[in-house]
Structure formats: structure tokens, C-alpha cells
Amino acid sequence: MATGVLGLGSGQAASLNSDLIEKLKTAERKSAVEPIETRITKIGTEKTTFSTIEAKVAEFLETVKPFDLFISGGVNAFEQKGATTSGDSVTFDAADAKSLSKGFTSVDVTQLAQKDVYQSNNVTEAVKNAKINQGSLVINGQTFDTTNKSYQELATEISAKSGMIASVEQVGTDSFRLIVKSEETGVANKLNISGAASQALGFTTDGTAVNATNHILEAKNMVAKVDGVEYNVASNSLTVDGLKITANKLGVSSITIADDTSQLETQMKNFVTKYNELLALVDNEVYNSDSALDDKSSIRSIMTQIKDKLFGSYGPSSDKSLFNYGVELDKYGALSLNTTKFNSAVQSDLSGLKDLFIGSAEKKGLGTILKETVDEMRYVGGTLNSYQSAMANRETKLEEEKAKAEKALNAKYEQLALQFSSYGAIINQMESSFSGLKMLIQQSTSGN
């Protein structure tokens, strides 16, 4: 005999529960959502790989910059200058090494520029803090009324004017002076002090004549000879042929400036090393079946563009190649540097090397063109920039696709849950009715 209606046993509605729905939903999610998540995860790995390539391109670019005609913020590899100095009466500096003239420069300093400095008579702290009330003090045509002004108030007013500085200094036990200085060195910046207050303070003896005792430093120009040419200037610094000369004390100093090619070999080795590292990285990703890169042809084009420039001909007559100056290529495409041949070229054909790497505005060299090429890869529309934009777009679309799939899956199983709830109610009602029928049948058969 059947134990339930239409083959359903008692309590069959309980099997249509949330656990069953979750199992069905999880199974379907594996085919509808998880493949999208896997692709999103792969893009994360691709981003890491791309960032490594991008960083290696940047490293290679740094080794190219010294060979760029239009290098910014410095000098190219062929404009380096070296300097040898003697003496310590001056220090030498240059804002632009390219403007320096080669050769020997001698500097003989016979007088240093200095400020004009006056001190007042000594006063006690009580006098310093009291009001001066000694009439007018005139400095370089500027009038300062001392009425109801303390020493510090007068100093503040003087310092507010251009060309002069004043301060109240303690020079001993209960001993103070008002110090007045020219703001700059040189005879042109000397101070002319007069007035009744000037005599009272001790700057002058009769209101106009300088009190030599209190005129403690006299304004002077620097006097020096540079390669025999005499200079008489207000500052202790002057610039001659791009060379900044700053006088420190009296005496003779010299500097010899010459071209410095000592770094060329190191710079060339760095260039070769970073090129080989970039080549190996790109080849490993492009020819690796497990690489996370989605668009290998774009990444391959990085090296294609660089090689196209690297293997070109340069110079005014387009007869100079990288491989004429000690650079060699192995069977795997990697570069090496024959330092003996390269250094021989540095000594015997430096201008040829410069034409090859730097070139001119009319005929750009290898380094200049390579710099432009790699820069363009990173600009909008360039290989690197476009690849990065494409990755971002793919990731955005996958995230949108995942959200849409999740939404559809959730909606489907929310509806299924409602249907299961309805089916459960119907089954429970049928089983309840069957239970009563079953009891009647049992009673009717029990009497027989």
C-alpha cells in the first residue's frame, strides 16, 4: 500500500527548504559567475606583470637620458666637465656646466666687499628702555623722529626701511648698543647718518662728521683680478664665462676646467644592461604560454620599436652605427660592450660618438630618438598607455558582467524560494487530507 499521496511520503514538504536552494544556487554560480571572477583575478595578475614591464621600461629610459640632445635639468654625457682647483681664497660653482669655458682661470682677491656698520655709544638697560627724545636721526635721507621712542622701537622703525638693518645688542654687563648696518655690501650701499639724534647716540661727532670710533666697519667693494682683468664690485661674488666665483678671503686661487669623459663607459654599460633586462623580461612574457598578458603583440611592439631605432644609422651622413663603436649583438639579441673598442673611440673619435648618440636638432642621434620613442609609449595613445587603458576597460566590463550575473542568479533563486514555499504549503495540505483518508480506511478495514 502507498504511504503517501501520489507517492509522496509524510513530511515531503520539508525537503523543499533553503538548504536545497543554496545547493542549487551554488552549483549554478560555478558556471555563471566564477568564470568571470577567474578572468578578473587574471587581470590582477596581468596588472602586476604589466607594472613590472613598465618599471623596466622606465629604468631603460633613465639610461637613455644622458644621451639625449634635449636633456632637461642637466648636461648630456658629452657635456660633462671636470675641474681641478688650488687655493682657498675663493670657491667656484656653475649653474650651467654647458656654458663653462675650458682652460685655466686664476683669481687674485686683494679686498673683500663688506657692509657699512655703525654702533651707538654704550648705554645702560635703564637708558635703553627709556625714551630717547633727542630729535631726528637721518639715515640715507630717511628721517626718524626719536621723540617718545625707546632704542628697540627706533631699531624696528629703521629696519622697516629698505637698505638698512638695526638691532639693539647687549655687549656687556648692563651695556647695550644700537647697531645700524647697510643691508648689502659695497660702497654703493654705504650709510650716511646725520641729525641731532645721531650726535646724541654717538654715530657722528657734530651731527654730520662721522665718529670714527663708532664707525666699526666701512663699506667696501670686492677688488679682484680674474685672469688679469680687475673687478671692483659691490658683492663678494661675480660670474665670469659661466663660472661663479665667491671670494672668502684675500689670496690667489685657480681652477682648471676640462671635458670629463670618465663616466661614458659606465653610462654605456648601464644602457646595455637595462636594455638586456628589458629584452629578457618582454621575451619571457611574450613567449610564455602561461603569461597573464592578454595582448602580447602590443608588449612585443615595445621591443620592436626600440630595436628599430637601435639598429639604425646616424650622424650627418647616416654612416654611424652603434655596432661601429664596440657594441656587439649575440644570437639571442642581447647586447654586450667591448670596452677596449669603446674607450678607444672615446679617445680618438669623441665627436663621432656624439654624432651617433646625441646628434643635432637637424639630425637627431640614437639617444635623442630613443628618448622620444620611449616617451611616446607612455603618452596618451602610446603603447604602454593604451595597454593600461585597455586593461582598465576590460576589468570594468568584467566587474559589470559579474554584477549582472550575480543579480540574475539572486533574482532566479529568490523566485524559486517563493515557489518552493507555495509548493510546500500545497504538499502539506495534501498530506493532511491524506492523513484523514488513511485513518478512515484503517478504521473500515479493522472491523473486518
Class from helix and strand fractions = alpha+beta
Oligomer class: single chain
Q: Give the overall pLDDT as a whole number.
A: 89
Rg (C-alpha, Å): 45 Å
Helix content: 40-55%
Taking pLDDT < 50 over at least 5 consecutive residues as the criterion, the unreliable ranges are 1-14
What is the strand content? 15-25%
- What distance separates the N and C termini? 18 Å
Strand elements, count? 16
Strand order of the largest sheet: 1-14-3-10-11
Q: Explain this structure to me?
A:
The protein has 11 helices and 16 strands. It has a 5-stranded antiparallel beta sheet with strand order 1-14-3-10-11, with no helix packed on it. It has a 3-stranded antiparallel beta sheet with strand order 2-13-12, with no helix packed on it. Mean pLDDT is 89; it is low at 1-14. The protein is of the alpha+beta class.
Structural key phrases:
448 residues; flat
Short synopsis of the structure:
The protein is an alpha+beta fold. The protein has helices at 18-32, 34-64, 125-129, 151-159, 196-201, 264-286, 296-310, 339-348, 350-357, 366-378, 383-446; strands at residues 81-86, 90-93, 103-111, 117-119, 136-139, 142-145, 164-172, 175-182, 193-194, 222-226, 229-233, 237-240, 243-247, 251-259, 327-329, 335-337.
